[in-house]
Design a protein that fits this description.
The protein is mostly helical. It contains 6 helices and 2 strands; from the N terminus they run ααββαααα. Helices cover 67% and strands 3% of the residues.
């Protein structure tokens, strides 16, 4: 197994060395063993970082990524882990999409329907439309 320095790993995955240290600090990556005070990494770290980057691109937080790596029983295939976390994330995205559509609808209504001349007029109209 090749031993890589932090800068070599960073170059291979296209991130800064400081990001790798941050991932270790946040316990997304296990701490690297040190040789003469210098961190040494194997190919497994490069592969794990590739998963971290892809998971971030999919919208997962570092806490969720840590769960992907460490939040399942030992031996759980990564495919099952992805499936479980993806289902939750898709639900979150669906809720966000509904919220965004609602916001868009309101903005469209304001853009096309508001004829108020003053803030007071607008506020009064809002109060009327939301009171029951």
């Amino acid at each position: 197994m090749a031993q890589l320095t932090i800068s070599e790993v960073a170059r291979q995955v296209g991130i800064r060395a400081s990001a790798i240290r941050y991932y270790e600090e946040r316990k997304v990556l296990p701490p690297a063993p040190r040789v003469s005070g210098q961190r040494q990494y194997g190919d497994a770290t490069v592969h794990r970082l590739a998963v971290v980057i892809r998971a971030q691109e999919a919208g997962f937080s570092l806490d969720e990524i840590r769960q992907l790596f460490f939040g399942f029983r030992e031996g759980t295939p990564i495919s099952q882990r992805w499936k479980k976390l993806a289902e939750g994330k898709i639900g979150e995205l669906d809720a966000r999409l509904a919220q965004i559509q609602s916001m868009r609808d309101l903005l469209e209504k304001l853009r096309t329907c508001c004829r108020c001349e003053t803030v007071e007029q607008c506020g009064a109209g809002i109060l009327r439309s939301t009171s029951r």
